[in-house]
Amino acid sequence: MQPKTYTKRSNGKPRKTPCGSYRCPNYTLGYHQPDCIKTIGVKKCDEELWRKVWGLIAEPGRFENLLQARIDQLQGEEVDAGAECERLERELDNLAMERQKVITWARKMFITEDDLQTQIAGLALQENILQKELDSKRLLVGNRIDRFLELSKVYRKQVKAGMEAINETPSNKDQAKRQFKFRRKIIDAIVNRVDVTPDKDVKVHFDFNLTELAEIKSTTS
Questions:
Q1: Residue 13 three-state SS
Q2: Nearest Cα to 138, choosing from 68, 188, 202, 212?
Q3: Domain ranges, ordered by start, for the chain
Q4: 73: which of 11, 36, 118, 186 lies 20 to 30 Å off by Cα?
Q5: Using CA atoms, how far apart are residues 184 and 68, in angstroms rounded to an integer?
Q6: Spatial CA neighbour of 205 closest among 66, 43, 14, 24
């Protein structure tokens, strides 16, 4: 889904209020399926996503158990990690070349601006998935899993220590930006995919990108 911004009047206010929504690109182009979600408000979706993410982090023991399961899985794949890293790096290079080709097509007006944005969004999604997989595989090279497990414990302490700041209502725009930035880092680290069902239920698929997990620093206090 793609973020869109629009304005509307509410509660009789003379000025329009900026609002945001996530829209299915097929719905925007007019050829969506009958069960298409169409749109969902940014505020509603983001709040539900964060509620489920925080529920994972805040529950004692659950976070560590899932993280350990992910590490066990990576250890089982350790044998061919080097070859997998090389393959994933090649695929990322190919995506970069494909992106440049699409941009060139747009400059030569072989495709429309809407087609350009749709293809770029699809390539970005593929790149994100491949990059997370590559980061996970790289952890297996040089026996770095134990070190990242230790760093993840530090990460959890930072999150717990900043619980109030992470979940309180921001008092100003600067605090809101810092809170959003930190929440985004957490979500990028442990969320693999988010689905929105036709009844607007937000389903979160968790994964653990240990590289990002180790680099997260609390910036909300």
A1: coil
A2: 212
A3: 42-77+144-221, 78-139
A4: 186
A5: 23
A6: 66
Segment 19-49, tens digit of pLDDT: 788 888 777 677 667 778 888 888 899 999 9
Distance CA 127, CA 74 (A): 20
pLDDT at 79: 61
Dihedral (C-alpha) 197, 38, 177, 193: value to the nearest 10 degrees? 40
Q: How many residues does the chain have?
A: 221
38: alpha, beta or left, given left = phi > 0 and alpha = psi -120 to 50? Answer: left
- Give the closest residue to 85 by CA, choosing from 142, 41, 22, 35: 142
Whole-model pTM: value is 0.59
Bridging pattern class, strands 191-196 and 39-41: unpaired
Q: How many CB atoms lie within 10 A of CB 153?
A: 11
Contact (CB, 8 A) for 128 and 9 = no
Residue 3 CB neighbour total at 10 angstroms: 10
Query: 46: Cβ–Cβ under 8 A, 6 or more apart, which residues?
Result: none
Name residue 206's beta-bridge partners: 191
| Angle at alpha carbon of residue 114, lines to 108 and 117, rounded to 5° | 85
Identify residue 104 by its one-letter amino acid code. T
Nearest residue to 221 (alpha-carbon basis) of 167, 147, 184, 152:
167
